[in-house]
Structure formats: C-alpha cells, structure tokens
Amino acid sequence: MLLELKYDEKGLIPAIIQDAENGDVLMMAYMNESSLKMTIDTGFTHFWSRSRQKYWKKGETSGNLQEVKEIFYDCDADALLIKVKQHGGVACHTGNRTCFFRKIELK
C-alpha cells in the first residue's frame, strides 16, 4: 500500500485530518513515509514539521491526541484523508476545535 503513494519532491504528502464522528475537517499537515508508518504502527497521528524539520506526534504536549480510525488516499495517490477520534476536543494550536475557523466572505 505505501509503495503506491506519490510523495512530492521533498518526500511529503498532505494529510487532511477529519473527525470520524461528525465529519468536521480538523486540520491539514504533512507526512512522509516514516511518519505515516509511525501513525499506522501506533494508531495516533504523527507528522513531519516542515518548519522545525522533525517528527511530531499530534497532542503529545497538549493532550489533544488524534486516535486514528481510518486512513484513505485519493485517486491520484498524492493526498491522504485520515479519520480520527479527536481527544481533548481541540485540533488547532490556536485553541480552536479546527484549524479551519476563518472564512472568506463571498459577494
């Protein structure tokens, strides 16, 4: 399965994190092959931080862990959709439930 995935030139693939219970899109982060394997092996999301250049387990310091329920990949095999149970109720580092709390108003 992992061999089918298409990572970008930096070895990364975008991962959209969705609440498995209500469908809310919680966040988007990047994974590489190793962080995806850590996610599969542990059952909790792990990502690659582009700014810090290191792995991070979501919620490791805040307690807002993401327990993985299902992992999908798209038709082009270049994006992931990970359905999770969000522990702690907050996914965003700003303290909001989801990272998508700002809206562009349409005319």
TrEMBL record:
<protein>
    <recommendedName>
        <fullName>Phosphoribosyl-AMP cyclohydrolase</fullName>
        <ecNumber>3.5.4.19</ecNumber>
    </recommendedName>
</protein>
<feature type="binding site">
    <location>
        <position position="75"/>
    </location>
    <ligand>
        <name>Zn(2+)</name>
    </ligand>
</feature>
<dbReference type="GO" id="GO:0004635">
    <property type="term" value="F:phosphoribosyl-AMP cyclohydrolase activity"/>
</dbReference>
<feature type="binding site">
    <location>
        <position position="99"/>
    </location>
    <ligand>
        <name>Zn(2+)</name>
    </ligand>
</feature>
<feature type="binding site">
    <location>
        <position position="76"/>
    </location>
    <ligand>
        <name>Mg(2+)</name>
    </ligand>
</feature>
<comment type="subunit">
    <text>Homodimer.</text>
</comment>
<dbReference type="InterPro" id="IPR002496">
    <property type="entry name" value="PRib_AMP_CycHydrolase_dom"/>
</dbReference>
<dbReference type="GO" id="GO:0000105">
    <property type="term" value="P:L-histidine biosynthetic process"/>
</dbReference>
<feature type="binding site">
    <location>
        <position position="74"/>
    </location>
    <ligand>
        <name>Mg(2+)</name>
    </ligand>
</feature>
<keyword id="KW-0479">Metal-binding</keyword>
<dbReference type="GO" id="GO:0005737">
    <property type="term" value="C:cytoplasm"/>
</dbReference>
<keyword id="KW-0378">Hydrolase</keyword>
<comment type="pathway">
    <text>Amino-acid biosynthesis; L-histidine biosynthesis; L-histidine from 5-phospho-alpha-D-ribose 1-diphosphate: step 3/9.</text>
</comment>
<dbReference type="InterPro" id="IPR038019">
    <property type="entry name" value="PRib_AMP_CycHydrolase_sf"/>
</dbReference>
<comment type="similarity">
    <text>In the C-terminal section; belongs to the PRA-PH family.</text>
</comment>
<keyword id="KW-0368">Histidine biosynthesis</keyword>
<dbReference type="InterPro" id="IPR026660">
    <property type="entry name" value="PRA-CH"/>
</dbReference>
<comment type="function">
    <text>Catalyzes the hydrolysis of the adenine ring of phosphoribosyl-AMP.</text>
</comment>
<dbReference type="GO" id="GO:0008270">
    <property type="term" value="F:zinc ion binding"/>
</dbReference>
<dbReference type="GO" id="GO:0000287">
    <property type="term" value="F:magnesium ion binding"/>
</dbReference>
<keyword id="KW-0963">Cytoplasm</keyword>
<dbReference type="GO" id="GO:0004636">
    <property type="term" value="F:phosphoribosyl-ATP diphosphatase activity"/>
</dbReference>
<comment type="pathway">
    <text>Amino-acid biosynthesis; L-histidine biosynthesis; L-histidine from 5-phospho-alpha-D-ribose 1-diphosphate: step 2/9.</text>
</comment>
<keyword id="KW-0460">Magnesium</keyword>
<keyword id="KW-0862">Zinc</keyword>
<keyword id="KW-0028">Amino-acid biosynthesis</keyword>
<feature type="domain" description="Phosphoribosyl-AMP cyclohydrolase">
    <location>
        <begin position="27"/>
        <end position="101"/>
    </location>
</feature>
<feature type="binding site">
    <location>
        <position position="92"/>
    </location>
    <ligand>
        <name>Zn(2+)</name>
    </ligand>
</feature>
<feature type="binding site">
    <location>
        <position position="78"/>
    </location>
    <ligand>
        <name>Mg(2+)</name>
    </ligand>
</feature>
<comment type="similarity">
    <text>In the N-terminal section; belongs to the PRA-CH family.</text>
</comment>
<dbReference type="Pfam" id="PF01502">
    <property type="entry name" value="PRA-CH"/>
</dbReference>
